Amino acid sequence: MKGQEWYQADAVAEEYDAKRFSKGGRLIDRREKEAVLNALGPVEGDDVLEIACGTGRFTALLAERGADIVGLDISEAMLAQGREKARRAGVGERIEFIRGDAARLPFPDDHFDTVFAMRFFHLAETPAKFLAEMARVSKRTVFFDTFNDGSLRVLYNWALPMGSHLYSRGDVERLVRDAGLGLAEEAHDFVFPYGFYREIPNAVADPIRDVDTTIGDNPVGRRLASVSYWTAEV
């Protein structure tokens, strides 16, 4: 996986949320949580697996809504942050955080109702293998996001410490088909890429976000979207 050593550093884990979801990044956090909740629907009583759970932003969110959830990540430092976040939210008993490899998930077939990954596939060097494993352990839904190769993200991709794999729609359709899944829903957003929002104050980000959503609310704008959310069914 791209940037694996960088990602696992203690200092990166400690600063991860503050660096990415402060200032205008708060808009990104809200939109991503909305996307996850919309895709997964009611989760009370469901068994859910989050791949690359990081600091547990979504893991705790879904546990608060009644899911029994496993958060898997390669970074023990990130998992430590997730455990603390779950403890503060009072949902630690609904979450199991484990260190593991997404290419070899330590679970039997059809073990979870839903499996999802956010901010993962842009780092994946073998995306087909990862998606096939997600499909194997899910008995209902697989949800993930991608960064897109027709977007403004191309212009600053070189500046990211880990780089990013950018996908076309055709790429995603092939991945989903080869994993034995059927594409059920999709959503496309953020004409202005994430890195732009993270560099501006929250008060400035709000009106720019209004412009962003207006541009994106048409076929041309959707083709320029930086990020896409994909819901697939087993």
TrEMBL record:
Report if keyword Methyltransferase is assigned. yes
What SUPFAM superfamilies does the record tag this protein with? S-adenosyl-L-methionine-dependent methyltransferases (SSF53335)
Database matches in InterPro entries: Methyltransf_25 (IPR041698), SAM-dependent_MTases_sf (IPR029063)
Show the GO MF annotations: methyltransferase activity
Record's signal peptide: none
Q: Which UniProt keywords apply?
A: Methyltransferase, Transferase
Q: Tell me which Pfam families the record gives.
A: Methyltransf_25
Biological process annotations from GO:
methylation
Q: Which domain of life is it from?
A: Archaea
Q: Which residues form the Methyltransferase domain?
A: 48-139
Give the PANTHER family listed for this entry: METHYLTRANSFERASE (PTHR43591)
Give the protein's recorded name.
N-methyltransferase-like protein
